[in-house]
Amino acid sequence: MKNTPLTQIHIALGAKMADFAGYNMPIQYSSITEEHLAVRKKVGVFDVSHMGEFIVSGKEALEFVQKVTSNDASKLNVGDIQYTCLPNTDGGIVDDLLLYRMQDDKTTGFPVFMLVVNASNMEKDWNWIASYNTFDAEMKNISDQTGLLAVQGPEATAILQKLTDINLSDFKYYTFQTGSFAGIDNALISATGYTGSGGFEIYIPADKTVQLWNAVMEAGKDTGIQPCGLGARDTLRLEMGFCLYGNDIDATTSPLEAGLGWITKLKKPADFVGKDWMTAQKEAGLKRKLIGFTMQERRVPRHGYQIFDHQENEIGVVTSGTQSPSLDQPIGMGYVPVDMAQEGSIIFIQLGKKLMEAKICNLPFVKI
User: Fold this and answer.
1) Summary count for the chain: helices (H), strands (E)
2) Mean of the pLDDT values across residues 302-310?
3) Where would you tag: which of 49, 103, 113, 217 has the fewest CB atoms within 10 A of its CB?
4) Are 25 and 17 in contact (CB under 8 A)?
5) Cα torsion angle, 145, 53, 33, 26, sign
6) Cβ(265)–Cβ(66) under 8 Å?
7) Peptide bond into 364 cis (omega under 30)
8) Which residues contact 35 (CB under 8 A, 6 or more apart)?
9) pLDDT attached to residue 290
10) pLDDT per residue as tens digits for the range 316-328
11) How far is Cα 95 from Cα 248, in angstroms, rounded to an integer?
């Protein structure tokens, strides 16, 4: 297993560690519920240094990015961020990612982008993207040289403001700036996160990650700042209805089926991988749809559980499920036929030998 720069700190803090995407990562420190509620009510800190970062630059960097991603990168100004995905050629998704429009190259004046990809897909994504590089563009993998903290929750802005002269209150969602942060030059401060509770993600050189962690924890000590593991990150994202690659989206699910039509720009001024099958799918009409549901009993649904209708016909599969700490109720997501996906409809989840009632609801589960 690989380590992040903070692995020994996590172990010293007593975190429960486990292999995640080939990295030795903290799953929880105290309890998932405690960490989850800290982010919803105050602030929590996640080590997400395992994520992958690729730089794409050069004369045709924009054309290259437009070719491999589903969203319209031409809409980005310097300092903007875009949620997008890498469609494959036969009806699915290679990965979902964030696309950053960086400052133009100072020497050439050419555009520069940063692609932030899932750790579990890093090598696959790199090879996939590289296979389409017939453009005047260069790729560089800076994942091992980059550390990343996510500081999330309603108190995040006030705490982090102690560490920088950049006015964090001025940030719009999905924008970023670079500057001095916690005494670290050229840090990238990004108004993004995977929790729905607001906050920032901070990219720094890997060898500065411990310095950043210590500074953030010190700045937040009077607020009760909480180190958080991947367990709470999962429950937080699920309450918001955010997709997790490998669960809710994968090589067999389309962005349209997953409710990601808003990042699928079929009319953007560039041809792109997957456009033909996505256009055909849209014209033919979707056959299935990703829905959210709440369990009517206390049993928690899990990935892979089967979904049934009133006549006990199998109609779909659960992709994600958990006990929602905010709602104190089991929740889940899964795919069902479009004509059975109406809000308020009753479905049944197979848990062992029993079929347990659930109700389809709109996403997100929790309004922040």
Assistant:
1) 8, 19
2) 98
3) 103
4) yes
5) negative
6) no
7) yes
8) 28, 29, 44, 226, 227, 228, 229, 231, 232
9) 98
10) 999 999 999 999 9
11) 11
Non-local (6+) Cβ contacts of 181 within 8 A are 160, 163, 164, 166, 187, 189, 202, 204, 212
Q: Please write the tens of the pLDDT for every residue from 61-120.
A: 999 999 999 999 999 999 999 999 999 999 999 999 999 999 999 999 999 999 999 999
Average pLDDT over residues 5-17: 98
Per-residue DSSP letter, 237: H
Q: What is the pTM of this model?
A: 0.98
pLDDT tens profile 21-45: 999 999 999 999 999 999 999 999 9
How does 265-275 read in b/e, with b if 16+ C-beta sit within 10 Å? bbebeeebbbb
Which tokens in the block code for residue 47?
């080590």
Give pLDDT tens digits for 178-205: 999 999 999 999 999 999 999 999 999 9
For residue 179 the two structure tokens come to 């500057």
The CA distance from 363 to 34, in Å, is: 23
From residue 224, give the alpha-carbon distance in Å to each of 35, 48, 99, 195, 218. 11, 20, 32, 18, 10
The three-class DSSP label of residue 324 is strand
For residue 358, name the pLDDT band (cuts at 50, 70, 90). very high
Residue matched to tokens 């996510």: 150
Provide the pLDDT for residue 368.
Answer: 87
CA dihedral 34, 242, 96, 42 (to 10 degrees): -40
How is 99-131 classified by DSSP, letter by letter?
Answer: EEE-PPPTTT---EEEEEE-GGGHHHHHHHHHT
Residue 135 exposed, middle or buried by CB count within 10 Å (0-12, 13-18, 19+): middle
| CA–CA separation, 32 and 28 (whole Å) | 6
Q: What is the DSSP letter of 344?
A: T
Q: Which amino acid is at 22?
A: G
| Sequential DSSP letters for 166-214 | S-GGGPPTTBEEEEEETTEEEEEEES--SSSS-EEEEEEEGGGHHHHHH
Among residues 235, 247, 249, the alpha carbon closest in space to that of 196 is found at 235
